[in-house]
């Protein structure tokens, strides 16, 4: 019987990405099923019933979803962060979970710069702003997105440093970036700090009041990572006390209204996570996802498995 592949994306891929996935499915003899912009989690729970593979974005793949998917063998998160998948539940159901590392990282990095320029120019309010050239940028976590951020920053003429205790110093230096061994030093000395931490137990509210309060005068914090890695109350409190600091986020803060009331145009959030929302990133991540599924079904390839 033909394998059934469900693409379930509450926030849809660009049409070109969907068509490419559909074509690869049909050439491989798989049945392609599409569930987009679904209004409720229960729609996903119902849709997975008899599928063999699932491609998602930030869609929440809970235990309920996985327990309801008796034929499911593999879930591929078309993107980097897989904090939206209950990996323990997948493992206990014998389901492989993969991500597609690096496929959307340039898109996220470009958005980080869009946000830096937007904040440096007072949210385009017509008043004099500042430039990125000559400023110091701190990259907090130097993975695939961090590498792209470094490359673009060099084009802007910024000085670039990075803090990532999990990446060897030489691997950071290779990109013309100065590695720091103290996160405090980064927050104390950088004009811009760009967050690229995954949301894992060790990083929950990592950017806390203490780090925020030592930020350099006039600095801007850019979050295109996850809302869980910052302490939102800390941002509210520290930015209310320090009128020189700014915060821009690609993940709507829970207290965004209160932030806007108290902090005015020193705070900004996209209405919906936009980092990976480009045609190129959707094609890259979506095609990588279906190829990984094909390689898994046809060759047993588990290279990108994250729930080992
Ligand atoms: C990721 O982890 O890959 C990014 O946050 C993109 O997420 P999205 O696919 O929900 O836009």
Description:
Helices cover 38% and strands 17% of the residues. By secondary structure, the chain is α/β, with parallel strands linked by helices. The chain folds into 2 domains: 4-103 and 278-299, Rossmann fold (3-Layer(aba) Sandwich), CATH 3.40.50.720; 105-269, NAD(P)-binding Rossmann-like Domain (Rossmann fold, 3-Layer(aba) Sandwich). Strand 3 (53-56), helix 3 (63-67) and strand 4 (74-77) form a beta-alpha-beta unit. Helix 1 packs parallel to helix 12 (279-299) and helix 5 (105-120) crosses helix 6. The longest helix is centred in the last third of the chain and has 21 residues, at 279-299. The site of 3-phosphoglyceric acid has 11 residues, from loops. Residues 11, 57-58, 79-81, 104, 273, 275-277 line the site of 3-phosphoglyceric acid.
Secondary-structure blueprint of this entry?
Elements: E1 4-9, H1 15-28, E2 31-36, H2 41-47, E3 53-56, H3 63-67, E4 74-77, H4 87-92, E5 96-99, H5 105-120, E6 136-140, H6 144-156, E7 159-163, H7 169-173, E8 178-179, H8 183-189, E9 192-195, H9 209-213, E10 220-223, H10 232-241, E11 246-249, H11 256-263, E12 267-269, H12 279-299
Parallel strand pairs: 1-2, 1-3, 3-4, 4-5, 6-7, 6-9, 7-8, 9-10, 10-11, 11-12
Bound molecules: 3-phosphoglyceric acid (3PG).
Report the span from N to C terminus. 28 Å
Structural class: alpha/beta
Task: Report strand %.
Answer: 15-25%
CATH superfamily of the largest domain: NAD(P)-binding Rossmann-like Domain
Record keyword descriptors for this entry.
308 residues, alpha/beta, Rossmann fold, 2 domains, seven-stranded parallel β-sheet, five-stranded parallel β-sheet, 12 strands, 38% helix, binds 3-phosphoglyceric acid
């Amino acid at each position: 019987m033909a394998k059934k592949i469900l693409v379930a994306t509450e926030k849809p891929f660009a049409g070109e990405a969907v068509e490419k996935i559909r074509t690869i499915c049909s050439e491989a003899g798989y049945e392609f099923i599409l569930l987009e912009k679904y209004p409720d989690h229960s729609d996903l729970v119902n849709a997975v019933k008899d599928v063999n593979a699932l491609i998602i974005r930030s869609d929440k793949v809970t235990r309920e979803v996985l327990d309801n998917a008796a034929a499911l063998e593999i879930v591929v998160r078309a993107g980097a962060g897989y904090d939206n998948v209950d990996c323990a539940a997948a493992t206990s159901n014998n389901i492989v979970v993969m991500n597609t590392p690096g496929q959307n990282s340039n898109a996220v990095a470009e958005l980080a710069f869009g946000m830096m320029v937007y904040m440096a120019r007072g949210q385009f309010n017509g008043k004099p702003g500042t430039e990125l050239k000559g400023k110091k940028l701190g990259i907090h976590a130097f993975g695939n997105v961090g590498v792209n951020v470094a490359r673009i920053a060099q084009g802007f003429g910024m000085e670039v440093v990075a803090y990532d205790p999990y990446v060897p110093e030489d691997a950071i230096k290779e990109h013309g970036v100065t590695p720091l061994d103290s996160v405090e030093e980064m927050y104390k000395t950088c004009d811009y700090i760009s967050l690229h931490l995954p949301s894992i137990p060790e990083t929950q509210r990592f950017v806390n009041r203490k780090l925020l309060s030592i930020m350099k005068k006039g600095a801007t914090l850019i979050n295109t990572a996850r809302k869980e890695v910052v302490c939102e109350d800390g941002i509210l409190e520290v930015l209310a006390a320090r009128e020189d600091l700014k915060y821009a986020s690609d993940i709507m803060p829970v207290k965004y209204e209160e932030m806007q009331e108290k902090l005015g145009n020193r705070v900004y959030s996209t209405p919906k996570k936009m980092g990976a929302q480009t045609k190129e990133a959707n094609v890259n991540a979506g095609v990588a996802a279906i190829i990984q599924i094909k390689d898994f079904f046809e060759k047993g390839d588990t290279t990108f498995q994250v729930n080992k």
